[in-house]
Design a protein that fits this description.
By secondary structure, the protein is an alpha/beta fold. The chain contains 27 helices and 31 strands. Helices cover 44% and strands 18% of the residues. The strands form 10 sheets. Strands 7, 8, 9, 10, 11, 12 and 13 form a 7-stranded mixed beta sheet that branches. α9 packs across α15 and α17 packs across α18.
Length: 873
């Protein structure tokens, strides 16, 4: 068979992915097999493939491909998220570039532009995932705003409203001045920033005295409605019940007392701005303070501020400090490290704002969702993330679910002219409800709420809605595929998504949505920085695939990606992945290059080599199964990597290959090809393309006989004792090769090996020694051999007679060094055994291990001392 001299991943990867698609090998329909289901964390339709996607989806693909090869009905559901804020921003930006303002369009006109943008750009990332080898059931592709998902979201809103869990009210929310919408707490990212702490003095009404407050936001002073001190702070006892004049405006505001005040922060005197701080708002309600909202939605100052109207809040910050200083109100300004909230989507600084919004009460839903994780009904990998989950679930707040956007599921609330509101899934049903209040109402009398729902309000239904389990509970798909098996996601959306999906699953399926959650780490560069476009430290994943092949990139990323821990990515990892593919390819060329003779017997060295590799294969299968059971995918991959590179390529093939230009016996060749097939099956979930190619090159296959639907090897009983003996054999071979190198003895010059008779060494593997080390004979001797280079493996002595080639002084020096090492080792063991506390408290088996170490070291020292005497004599 003619096999290309060099592996070409690009041609082979395109070929096999097309083949898998054409033959519907990723397709899943309910049947009698055990299901294995994963739903993709839906990437935003605005997104393109980045390194985090690469890691996340490679892990999912490994799990799905392995399950498929275990005979399970594997179903990986792909899809995308409509991403309200990000997508609307993209569409607004596109329209602005065309000279069109969003405000000039009706909702319907804007949504037409949004859908056109989505159709053009929304599927890009899914197409890119195909280059990675993602084996999704593409026929099941979902979108969070397609008809089924849209109707499901509206149905759930209606249901929760009728249960009294959704309500509308004025609350303090996180406001994004750039996206012009409210955000939930989880959509706010706090960053440490270098800021300033401004000490501003307020004059006490009717007195020539002042109090000083410290603030990082002097622009909010115009909305102050009180100054607060701690009731037990003796510095301010005299001020109780007095009032102060607001700087610049001279508005009179009271001094109030509350234990909320931190006496150690700043001056211990706090300005209260109920409209622009959550805690100030709560204090304002408690003390019945007025609320003055001095900001417009876009972050400029409103008419209520009375000064700087229409100017941006950060420009006002600079100007008001100048004006306060001129008026004598600035005491001092200090550098200050401050935690500031930023919008997760637009990176705008969040503005706390009172706003009429829709909220979902989730405290009661959170309790069972917490229990399911804490009792491991839903298992987290790594487990340490349970602590973070518990803290959040025990401190949940009502979820602000409304957004002041058009791109999203529109809130199904309808307002009557009288101000009353009805909630219904359709306009027709809303009119029926409205007519129960006023029979004369027409459809035109109803005004639907302008807001849309938070994107996460659709995402939390994802494991149910992808199988249409909201609209059609009990349908064949939801009954078969739900609950799903594994969720692979990032820890930063633990609350956005994971917690809420568990709540929704328990609410609407009365069952958890998934059994296991594997949390990936963050992909970081060599300096430890998170990879991002803004830093310019993130390579283009598609460029990496073009350069190293998808298999190379997958392997490179997975080799150093333990669950929950960050991935220190280096492009050299992908090069290592490509080198692995080349290693496998060259091994294939070697094996397929052998000629086979059916008439020659199988050599003894081949028989024992096959027995050894069968044992090694099954030992590794045990390791792999254990790693997968604990979601240690990088360790499972490393076990496969070592089995192929070290054990198969470096040892097994060397052990069985025939002499130069000699044929191989048929039995050994068949066993070797079978081993090769099994190795490709083990490696396939990690590196799917090259393994599929080699699978078909190793043997004639029918069109449907692909490796991806073959059965993975199962663990068979194996000879553990043989593995231990082979480990000793490797040491013997290494020592013999060292002797050749040190004595400059050519490989073609045969050596004699003398082995001092010892029960620890059996001749079973001697045929391998003869073949790999070019030995003319192996002799078993009763005594030490004079004029020989000696070494020990375990407690067995080996001698290579070299006559005058032996450098006695060098041999003596070598033995002295070994004795010195062993004496140090023995001393440490004896010290431990001489410790009465250790002997009394340690487990008997631990003490016995130390005693065996002592005996072994003493025996080796004795043997080495005898060798030294032999050389000296």
């Amino acid at each position: 068979m003619e096999i290309d001299s060099k592996y070409n991943p690009n041609a082979i990867e395109d070929k096999w992915y097309s083949y898998w698609l054409e033959n519907k090998l990723f397709r899943s329909v309910p049947d009698a097999r055990e299901p294995f289901t994963i739903v993709i964390p839906p990437p935003n339709v605005t997104g393109v493939l980045h390194m985090g996607h690469m890691l996340n989806n490679t892990i999912q693909d490994v799990l799905v491909r392995r399950a498929r090869m275990q005979g399970k009905n594997a179903c990986w559901v792909p899809g995308t998220d409509h991403a309200s804020i990000a997508t609307e921003a993209k569409v607004v930006s596109k329209l602005k570039a065309e000279g069109i303002e969003k405000t000039s369009l009706s909702r319907e006109e804007f949504l037409k532009h949004a859908w056109e943008w989505k159709e053009k750009h929304g599927g890009i990332i899914l197409e890119q995932l195909k280059k990675l080898g993602a084996s999704c059931d593409w026929d099941r592709t979902c979108f969070t705003m397609d008809e089924a998902r849209y109707e499901s979201v509206i149905q759930v809103f209606n249901d929760l409203y009728e249960k009294g869990l959704i309500y509308r009210g004025v609350r303090m929310v996180n406001w994004d001045p750039r996206a012009l919408t409210a955000l939930s707490d989880e959509e706010v990212i706090f960053k440490e920033v270098q800021s300033k702490l401004y000490y501003v003095r307020y004059q006490i009404e009717g007195e020539n005295e002042w109090v000083t407050v410290a603030t990082t936001r002097p622009e909010t002073i115009l909305g102050d409605t009180a100054v607060c001190v701690h009731p037990n702070d003796e510095r301010y006892t005299r001020l109780h019940g007095k009032k102060v004049l607001l700087p610049l405006l001279n508005r009179v505001i009271p001094i109030i007392c509350d234990e909320y005040v931190d006496r150690e922060f700043g001056t211990g005197c706090l300005k209260i701005t109920p409209a622009h701080d959550v805690n100030d708002y709560l204090l304002g309600q408690k003390h019945q303070l007025p609320t003055i909202d001095t900001f417009n939605d876009d972050g400029t100052l409103s008419e209520a501020a009375q000064m700087y109207v229409g100017q941006d809040r950060f420009e006002v910050r600079k100007q008001i400090v100048v004006d306060l200083e001129k008026a004598g109100h600035i005491v001092k300004i200090e550098d200050y490290v401050n935690k500031v909230g930023y919008s997760e989507r637009t990176d705008a600084v969040i503005e706390p704002k009172l706003s009429m919004q829709w909220f979902l009460k989730i405290s009661e839903m959170a309790k069972p969702a917490l229990d399911m994780v804490m009792d491991d009904t839903v298992k987290f990998y790594p487990e340490k993330i349970k602590n973070t989950y518990r803290h959040w679930m025990e401190n949940v707040h009502d979820w602000c679910i409304s957004r002041q956007l058009w791109w999203g599921q529109r809130i199904p609330a309808y307002y009557l002219p009288s101000g009353e509101v009805v909630v219904a899934q359709t306009t027709e049903r809303a009119l029926e409800k409205a007519r129960q209040i006023n029979p004369a109402l027409q459809a035109s009398d109803l005004r639907q709420d302008e807001d849309c729902l938070d994107t996460w309000f659709s995402s939390w239904l994802w494991p149910i809605s992808v199988f249409d389990g909201i609209r059609h509970p009990g349908n064949a798909d939801i009954k078969y595929y739900y609950p799903t098996n594994d969720l692979v996601t990032a820890p930063e959306i633990l609350f956005f998504w994971v917690a809420r999906m568990i709540m929704a699953g328990l609410e609407y399926q009365k069952e958890i949505p998934f059994k296991n959650v594997y949390f990936t780490g963050i992909v970081r560069d060599k300096l430890g920085r998170k990879m991002s476009k803004s830093l310019g430290n993130s390579p283009d994943p598609l460029d990496l695939i073009d350069q190293y092949g998808a298999d190379g990139v997958r392997l490179g990323m997975l080799l150093t990606s333990p669950a929950g821990n960050d991935l220190p990515f280096d492009e050299s990892l992908c090069e290592q992945g490509r080198n692995f593919s080349n290693k496998i390819w060259n091994a294939l060329r070697l094996v397929k290059g052998w000629s086979v003779d059916h008439n020659i017997p199988q050599p003894g060295y081949a028989q024992i080599s096959i027995r050894w590799f069968e044992a090694k294969l099954n030992e590794t299968l045990e390791t792999i199964d254990e790693c997968f059971s604990k979601y240690r995918l990088s360790e499972a991959l490393m076990a496969v990597y070592k089995l192929i590179w070290d054990d198969f390529c470096s040892w097994y093939l060397e052990l069985v290959k025939p002499a130069y230009q000699q044929p191989m016996d048929a039995k050994t060749y068949e066993s070797t090809c079978l081993f090769f097939e099994k190795l490709m099956q083990l490696a396939h979930p990690f590196i799917p393309f090259i393994t599929e190619e080699i699978w078909h090159l190793l043997s004639e296959r029918s069109g449907s006989d692909c490796i991806m639907i073959s059965q993975q090897p199962s663990i068979q009983a194996f000879d553990k004792e043989l593995l231990s003996r082979f480990d000793s054999l490797v040491e013997i071979i290494t020592q013999l090769r060292t002797i050749r190198k040190e004595k400059n003895i050519a490989q073609k010059e045969a050596l004699v090996l003398c082995i001092r008779k010892n029960a620890a060494h059996t001749p079973e593997l001697d045929s391998i020694l003869v073949k790999l080390c070019n030995l003319s004979e192996i002799r078993y001797v009763e005594d030490k051999v004079a004029g020989a280079s000696a070494f020990m493996v375990g407690t067995t002595e080996f001698f290579v007679p070299l006559g005058d080639k032996v450098d006695k002084e060098a041999e003596k020096a070598k033995i002295k060094e070994e004795i010195r090492y062993l004496q140090g080792f023995l001393e440490s063991v004896l010290k431990k055994l001489g410790n009465e506390r250790f002997v009394a408290n340690a487990k008997p088996e631990v003490v016995e291990i130390e005693r065996r170490k002592q005996a072994d070291a003493e025996q080796k020292i004795k043997v080495l001392e005898e060798q030294m005497k032999l050389i000296e004599n």
